[in-house]
Amino acid sequence: KKQAEKAVHQKKEQSKTKCRKARRRHINLVAEFNRRQRKNIWLETHIWHAKRFHMVKKWGYCLGNSPTEKSYRACYRAMTKHCLLQDLSYYCCLELAGKENELLKQLGRICSIDTGLTFQEACYLSGRFEGSLNLYRADRYPEDMLGPVTFIWRPRDGSEHRQLWIWVHPALKQDILRELKAIFQCSEPEEICITEPVTTSVQEEKQMDVVMSPGKKRKKEDKEGEKVVPVKKIIGDGTRDPFQSYSLISQTTGIAISDRSMEILRYRLIGPLSHSVLTETLKAASVQTV
Predict the structure, then answer these.
(1) Is 1 among the domain residues?
(2) pTM here?
(3) How far apart are CA 190 and CA 130, in angstroms?
(4) 171 shares its domain with 250
(5) Are residues 155 and 96 located together in one domain of the fold?
(6) pLDDT in tens, the chain (290 residues)
(7) HSE of 4, CA atoms in CB hemisphere, 13 A
């Protein structure tokens, strides 16, 4: 009797799940891909890492922590003789745009020349090199350190308007963004661009009607009767609302702060063949002047 009840119970549970053929359909794979990002954001290399690494959930992301097989020798060989690539796209990118003098004046309040090179060094201002330093609360050095950051200037184009990209660890982003907002006196713009919310698989099932016809496969259609074209969606980043484009602007200084997290990807190449890999992968674009 117990075995019979157990068999009936298992049969009911199995009836709720789809067969493997149904799960492997393209539209169901994409719906599952979008559904699994509701809690933890995936990097664009997640599919590759998930098959080869033990994944951990940190700072709102799902990241590869350690390889599933003993590949330490292969990684060491790649770093010493070939090229090793790391995905650092989970680092948050903050973009500052405005007049160069105003940017340097206010940024000087949250760093100090006593710790090393700062934003105003000539080698960094040219945009040829990436710099790194420690940020502090405004006028509080050597107390109240916020944390380390890396930055790079956009090369000069002959105008006073400059762009600066600051790369911040996701655990430090909110504190540093709050301090930048304070020193530049930025406030949220009146119009905020809100993108279309990402629908989960349950919501997609409700919005789509399943059309059954004898002798043909099922095809999902939307309310207007058009065929559904599933699209993979990368949802924002793990530190802000994924449905809003975060942008701040100052009415007094004219400085604009934009959150470019997950919009600008970041990779680290290690090894003697890194330069050759970049030259073979990237092609210079032709500059067209109007």
Answers:
(1) no
(2) 0.69
(3) 34
(4) yes
(5) yes
(6) 878 777 766 655 554 566 777 766 777 777 777 777 777 788 888 878 888 888 888 888 888 888 887 777 888 888 899 998 888 888 989 999 989 898 998 898 899 888 888 898 888 988 889 999 999 998 888 888 999 999 999 988 878 889 999 999 988 988 998 898 888 888 766 444 443 434 444 444 444 444 334 444 455 554 444 455 555 555 445 555 555 557 888 888 888 888 888 788 889 999 999 999 999 988 888 876 65
(7) 1
For 118, residues 6+ apart whose C-beta sits below 8 A from its C-beta are 107, 108, 111, 112, 131, 133
84: part of which helix (H) or strand (E)? Answer: strand 84-87
CA distance between the termini of the chain: 84
- Bridge partners of 85, per DSSP, are 269
Please report, to the nearest 10 degrees, the dihedral formed by the alpha carbons of residues 256, 257, 261, 263 taken in order.
0
* 252 and 136 within one domain: yes
d(CA 192, CA 212): 42
Residue 202 lies in a domain: no
151/264 Cα distance (integer angstroms): 13
Structure-token pair, residue 175: 């504190």
Q: Is residue 141 domain-shared with residue 54, that is, in the same domain? A: no
Do 251 and 169 have their domain in common? yes
Cross-strand pairs, 165:
95, 152
- The number of folded domains in the chain is 2
Residue 157 lies in a domain: yes
Distance, in Å, from the CA atom of 257 to the CA atom of 97, rounded to the nearest integer, reads 7
What CATH number has the domain bearing residue 256?
Answer: 3.30.70
